[in-house]
Specification:
mainly alpha; three-stranded antiparallel β-sheet
Length: about 130
């Protein structure tokens, strides 16, 4: 893909931005969980790993070396796996109370998938040595 580098960088920035949006609302404790704030819960900062890995992926998208592209596939796969973990754990029902899913959780998942696809199809010319 011709623009996969820039699509990947844009998706990484959108993942970072989506970590700031509300992920779930837990009504019994009147708490809104975002990627970097989870008051009243034991979630910690579930989106912090997404932010760190996305920043690393931005640098790897911009480096035009084969090792960077290969490493970026691993980094984006880890980001997608962490997103899947968050998608399973954060909105899970506990003690009969089910949180309401918000848009941020879905956007992080969508942008992480697009980021992975951009990492799988890098725009890199490989020269043959004679």
């Amino acid at each position: 893909m011709k623009f996969s580098k820039w699509v990947g960088v844009a998706m990484a920035f959108l993942v970072i931005g989506s970590c700031l949006l509300p992920w779930v609302y837990i009504e019994p404790i009147n708490s809104t969980v975002t990627g970097i704030s989870a008051p009243g819960t034991n979630f910690g900062k579930p989106g912090l790993m997404n932010i760190i890995v996305s920043v690393l992926a931005i640098f790897l998208f911009l480096i035009q070396r084969v090792w960077a592209k290969r490493t970026n596939i691993f980094v984006c796969a880890f980001n997608l796996a962490w997103t899947a973990r968050n998608f399973i754990i954060i909105p899970a029902c506990a003690a009969g109370d089910c949180p309401t899913k918000k848009i941020g959780l879905f956007l992080v998942a969508l942008f992480s998938i697009f980021m992975m696809v951009a990492a799988l199809f890098p725009d890199m010319k490989i020269e043959e040595k004679k």
